[in-house]
Amino acid sequence: MEDSSRGGSSSGGLEGLEEQLKGLSVSRRSPGKGPTYLLHAALQPAGLLAVSCSDRALHLHQRETLAPAGEYQGHTGPICGLKFAHASPALLYSGSADGSVRAWDVRRPGTEAVQAFSSDPAHSYLSFDLSCSDVLLCAGTEQLSNQDSFLVFWDCRKPGAGPLGVYSESHSDDITQVCFHPRDRERLASGSADGLVNVFDLRRGAEDDALLLTCNSDSGVGSVCWAGPDLQQLLCLGSAGGLHLWDLGRVSTDQPLALFSSGDARGAGLDYLVGGQWLEQARRLLVVGGGHRGDLHLLECDARGLRPLSTLGGGHSSVVRCFLWDAAGGALVTGGEDAQLLLWKPGGTELTPGRTESRKSQSALRVKAKPHQQHQYQKHEYQKHQDQKHEYQRGKRS
């Protein structure tokens, strides 16, 4: 999910944002075609909104009206993420379980991908991200035959040249999340169904040297995002409802990394967590969850815990899969299993009202959860994860 909050001024301060969120109502609704899930959303600074669907298509919409603006076909497996390039926002990247990461020119809707990146034919990607410098791509793979899962790296400036290399030791199950730091192009976080969240400094090169820190979420990792005033915090949402907020600035201190942890943050109508987004201007961490009947819950997370800000009804009729906060437009965008894309604005009045009934289809992705050892975190300067290591696959590095 894109963080567009740095470019706008409409979110105001702490109180201004809270008032905005409490006043949100549906302003625009764009029903999808057929029984599809809307899985991911990405926002282009120039004004386009991109969404991925469970039928493996990518759709473009106008930011303010949600009017259709184009469609792309080409992936043969479920899509695992979307990302607009930072310096060249006409490029939209998508990753897929078909073993490819592709770049599309949004100025030419309906055309084929202009770039494609792939690795071993056996690799199926479950996550990917693009560095803030637009130089590095990284994708996380599904576990191969009860053996290894891989972080695969490419140089975006060299499409078709093959991977720069892979990391293969740090996760023992599907890699469900890859997240570059928003400002540090060499800092990367990865999350896995093995319950671990790893932080790497890619300047150090080899995997053992690059791995700075491992945190254990005690359940499969659903999503990870960078947060905090200095972007040194990591929010982890687990596939079983767990929520953890870690402060990486405490690594070299005796203080615990965990600012807040909950083994299961669900309850009181909150049936699941969608994700989190750091709102730079408001300096707050927004967490979005929901109920199975479509209600949305907007919450704030910090060291004091998880607190409700607003509950939104009258929009979706089923589970919400993706969201983003558009601070420049003062709007919330959501998409879900009812095939609907919604634009929420303060005091919004829907021009074409009417909820669409849930359109269930086969889930596009699965996230496996397994029991895990009960260690909170490890600082790799002092202790290594010997029981999480596999035999290093030197022959698979380039």
List the helices and strands and how they pair.
Blueprint (H helix, E strand, L loop, with lengths): L13 H9 L1 E8 L6 E6 L4 E6 L4 E5 L5 E5 L6 E6 L6 E6 L3 E6 L9 E4 L6 E6 L5 E6 L9 E5 L9 E3 L7 E6 L6 E6 L3 E6 L5 H4 E6 L4 E7 L5 E6 L4 E5 L10 E5 L9 E8 L4 E7 L5 E7 L2 E8 L7 E7 L4 E6 L3 E7 L30 E3 L19
Key features of this structure:
398 residues, mainly beta, Methylamine Dehydrogenase, Chain H, 5-stranded antiparallel sheet, 4-stranded antiparallel sheet, 2 helices, 3% helix, disordered N terminus
Strand order of the largest sheet: 14-15-16-17-29
Shape assignment: globular
DSSP strand (E) fraction? 35-45%
Q: How helical, in percent, are the residues?
A: under 10%
Protein model, in words:
The radius of gyration is 20 Å and the shape is globular. The chain is 3% helix and 43% strand. The N terminus and C terminus are likely disordered. With 398 residues, it is mainly beta. The chain has one domain: YVTN repeat-like/Quinoprotein amine dehydrogenase (Methylamine Dehydrogenase, Chain H). It contains two helices and 29 strands. Strand 19 and strand 20 form a beta hairpin. The strands form seven sheets. Strands 14-15-16-17-29 form a five-stranded antiparallel β-sheet. It has a four-stranded antiparallel β-sheet with strand order 1-28-27-26. The longest helix is centred in the N-terminal third of the chain and has 9 residues.
